[in-house]
Amino acid sequence: HHDNARPHTSGVTKNLVGKFDWEVKHHPPYSHHILPELTGACSSLQIHSMGRRLTSQEEVEMKKLASSFHSNLAKFYNEGMRKLVARWKDENIKNCDYVEH
Fold first, then answer.
1. Is residue 1 included in any domain, yes or no?
2. pLDDT tens-place string over residues 46-65
3. How many structural domains does the chain have?
């Protein structure tokens, strides 16, 4: 199987995904002649379009991406703040000689 990702960007992307500990969603390689129903994407696209008429596959993907981004934004920041507080507490415990009580 081959993917359409350019080799010089796929390594950078993999490193960035690893750096932020993001979850990777696997997908079949792009093929313009395969219907979305055959790739399992149909129900996901229907949910994100919410009855609106979309004019192109690109518009469908952009709306899906925007919807996913907005719905996960609060979760992303809350989780990030939780991790930041935990790290800060750990560092203060490790370096308790430097913290005034």
1. no
2. 444 455 666 677 777 888 88
3. 1
Instruction: Give me the domain span that covers residue 18.
Output: 7-98
- Is the dihedral angle over the CA atoms 34, 38, 39, 45 positive or is it negative? positive
Give dist(CA 78, CA 51) in Å, integer.
31
Q: What does the angle CA 60 – CA 63 – CA 68 come to, to the nearest 5 degrees?
A: 125
2 located within any domain: no
pLDDT in tens, 69-99: 777 777 888 888 888 888 888 777 666 655 4
Confidence category of residue 32, pLDDT binned at 50, 70, 90: low
- This prediction has a pTM of 0.27
Tell me whether residue 65 is in a domain: yes
On the 0-12 / 13-18 / 19+ scale of CB atoms within 10 A, 45 is middle
How many other CB atoms are there within 10 angstroms of residue 59's CB atom?
13
CA distance 62 to 64: 5
